[in-house]
Design a protein that fits this description.
Strand content: 15-25%
Number of domains: 2
Order of helices and strands: EHHHEHEEHEHEHEHEEEEEHHEE
Oligomer: single chain
C-alpha cells in the first residue's frame, strides 16, 4: 500500500523533519550534508541502503514556517513538493507528520487533518494542556492519531521488556535526561512506562539544583526522572529490582525513529490505534501533573478525570 505523507513544521534545535523524512525517503548526500544538521547527517550516512524506507510510506509534500528551510528539507530528503501552507496538503496526502516539538502549535496544525479523517503523527509532547488532551484523546483511541517519544521504541530497552520478571520486585526505575521536564521529561516517561503494568498515581518535585521528580506507581514502584538542564547528552534508564539491576544508555536515534515510523505506518494502513495510545494518555497526564508539581511544590495526584494537588 502506497501512503503519501505530508511533513509539517520545524522547531529550533529539532531536526526531526530531516531525520524522519530521510529515513522514509532516503536522502541526498549533498542536500543533507548542507542542511545544517551534522549529527543527523553523520548517523544517517553510516546506515546501509537497506535500512531506508518504511512500509509503504513516502513523504511527498513538505511545509515549514520558513520557505528556505522547506526547500532545504525537500533537497535533503528527496521530497517532490514544497507547499506554501499546510492546507494545500489536503487532498494530496494520506497521512501527516507534524514534526514540531512545541506543544502549543499542535492542535492548530493537526485539527484540519484530524477533522478530515487523515491520520496524523505529532511530535512529542502532544500537549501540556488537559483541555487539549480531552480533544486529542478520541483520535488516539480510534487510530487517527499517534504521538510519543521515539524512545518508546529504543532497542536498548528490549532486553528489559523481554526479561522484566527476572528483576523480581521492582523497587526503582530511574530516568536521566538533559534539558527540562516540560520538553524532555516525555522521553523518559515514554521509555519507562511501557516496561511495567503499573500506572502512575502521584508525582512530586524533589529538592535539587536541577528538575527532579518522583512518581509513585499504583503497585508501589517508584519512578524518578532527573532533567539535568544544560549538561552533556544523556538518555539513560536504570532498573533496580529485588533480584537484579541494570543500566541502559539510549543512543541509536536512527533505529528508534525507524521503529516509531513503522508503528505509524501500521496505524495508517490498518486503521487501528497504535500500541502507544493508552500509554500516551498516562504519559501526558504525568507530564502535565509534573509541571504543576514543579510550580506548586506540592504532590499532585494523577487522576483519570482531573489533575489536582494533594494537600
Amino acid at each position: 500500500m502506497a501512503i503519501n505523507v505530508g511533513i509539517l513544521g520545524h522547531s529550533p534545535g529539532n531536526g526531526h523533519p530531516f531525520s524522519y523524512s530521510s529515513i522514509i525517503n532516503g536522502y541526498s548526500d549533498a542536500g543533507l550534508r548542507e542542511a545544517g544538521w551534522p549529527v543527523i547527517y553523520d548517523y544517517v550516512r553510516r546506515r546501509h541502503a537497506s535500512d531506508f524506507g518504511v512500509e509503504g510510506l513516502r513523504v511527498t509534500c513538505a511545509w515549514t514556517q520558513d520557505a528556505a528551510v522547506t526547500q532545504a528539507l525537500c533537497r535533503a530528503a528527496n521530497i517532490a513538493t514544497a507547499v506554501a501552507s499546510p492546507s494545500e496538503m489536503l487532498g494530496q496526502v494520506d497521512a501527516v507528520i507534524i514534526a514540531r516539538d512545541d506543544a502549543a502549535s499542535h492542535r492548530r496544525l493537526a485539527e484540519p487533518f484530524l477533522e478530515a479523517g487523515i491520520p496524523v503523527f505529532i511530535d512529542k509532547p502532544l500537549t501540556l494542556d488537559t483541555v487539549e488532551l480531552d480533544y486529542f484523546r478520541p483520535f488516539l483511541e480510534t487510530g487517527k492519531l499517534m504521538s510519543c517519544s521515539s524512545m518508546r521504541y529504543a532497542w536498548e530497552l528490549d532486553v528489559i521488556k523481554a526479561g522484566i520478571a527476572d528483576y523480581g520486585q521492582l523497587h526503582v526505575l530511574r530516568g536521566t535526561i538533559v534539558n527540562d521536564w516540560a520538553r524532555y521529561g516525555v522521553h523518559m516517561l515514554d521509555a519507562i512506562f511501557p516496561l511495567v503494568q503499573a500506572r502512575p498515581v502521584a508525582i512530586r518535585a524533589l529538592a535539587s539544583r536541577h528538575q527532579s521528580l518522583a512518581i509513585t506507581m499504583d503497585d508501589g514502584t517508584l519512578v524518578t526522572v532527573d532533567a539535568l538542564g544544560d549538561a552533556p547528552p544523556i538518555f539513560r534508564v536504570d532498573v533496580l529490582g529485588s533480584r537484579c539491576h541494570s543500566q541502559h544508555d539510549i543512543t541509536d536515534n536512527f533505529s528508534m525513529f525507524r521503529r516509531l515510523l513503522s508503528e505509524f505506518a501500521a496505524m495508517v494502513e490498518f486503521g487501528r490505534p497504535s500500541e502507544s495510545a493508552e500509554t500516551t494518555v498516562w504519559v501526558l497526564k504525568t507530564l502535565i501533573a509534573g509541571n504543576r508539581a514543579l510550580q506548586t511544590n506540592q504532590e499532585v495526584s494523577i487522576d483519570d478525570a482531573q489533575l489536582q494537588a494533594v494537600v
